[in-house]
Design brief:
With about 220 residues, the chain is α/β, with parallel strands linked by helices. The protein has 7 helices and 9 strands. The strands form 2 sheets. A 7-stranded mixed sheet has the order 3-2-1-4-5-9-8. β6 and β7 form a beta hairpin. The chain is globular and about 65 Å long.
Length: about 220
């Protein structure tokens, strides 16, 4: 079977199809926070996001963004989806939030524009050619926090997407890639495996360190004895 070669076009279509297939006719505003995030936040050190800003990348039906926005009393909530039709549906459902048509590897936002970035069940969808760009963009636009919640098996593997077998999803531990930036420090991690290591999910809260703390300046004299 031929593989998908144009990831952006695939997701412009699949973004809308996913929304229709799973949530058409439902009141999106009544959807709860997904249980994994609910459990995670119950054990997470407090995050001061009152009057702050939250960005949910690949926000799906928008429920996680809306619930976090409401719970933390944030001033601004923003979501992205690659389908313009999905963005229109979400904008109508959540008039107090902002939605933008965008892929995750090139974001239309300023550096440090948001207090919290959420990547919930997104990274395993990203074409491997765009994975590092996606993580880099998430790090770039956060000023404080990043939450990544995704599959994290002991060994990396891929699977065919059951709705479109020509597209492949990728499961791997993404935490080392974030930590390798040198400026993102993991401060809380919760693992859900339900006895199935292959489908284990890690949810990790990272906090952004000041550049001078992460990379203290060393002058030539510091290296001489």
């Amino acid at each position: 079977m031929p593989r998908v070669t144009d990831q952006r076009q695939f997701f412009r279509t699949e973004s809308l199809e996913y929304l229709r297939r799973n949530f058409e006719g439902k009141d999106l505003r009544r959807l709860p926070l997904v249980p994994i995030l609910e459990d995670f936040l119950a054990h997470t050190p407090p995050m001061d996001l009152e009057n702050g800003s939250i960005l949910d990348l690949g926000c799906g039906p928008g429920n996680n963004l809306f619930q976090l926005f409401t719970r933390y009393g944030a001033q601004r909530g923003v979501g992205t989806e690659p389908s313009p039709e999905a963005v229109s549906i979400l904008t109508e459902a959540y008039p107090e939030l902002e939605f933008y048509e965008s892929t995750t590897d090139t974001l239309p936002f300023s550096t440090g524009e948001f207090d919290l970035i959420l990547l919930r069940s997104v990274l395993h969808w990203v074409d491997r050619n765009y994975l590092l760009q996606t993580i880099g963009e998430a790090i770039r636009v956060t000023a404080r926090y990043l939450i990544i919640s995704d599959f994290s098996p002991s060994l990396p593997y891929s699977t065919e997407y059951r709705h479109q077998p020509e597209y492949r999803t990728f499961k791997v531990d993404y935490r080392p890639l974030v930590e390798a930036s040198g400026i993102m420090e993991p401060i809380h991690r919760l693992r859900h495996d339900d006895g199935d290591e292959w489908n284990a999910i890690d949810t990790v809260l990272f906090e952004k360190k000041p550049l001078d703390t992460a990379f203290p300046l060393r002058r030539p004299d510091d290296f001489t004895g």
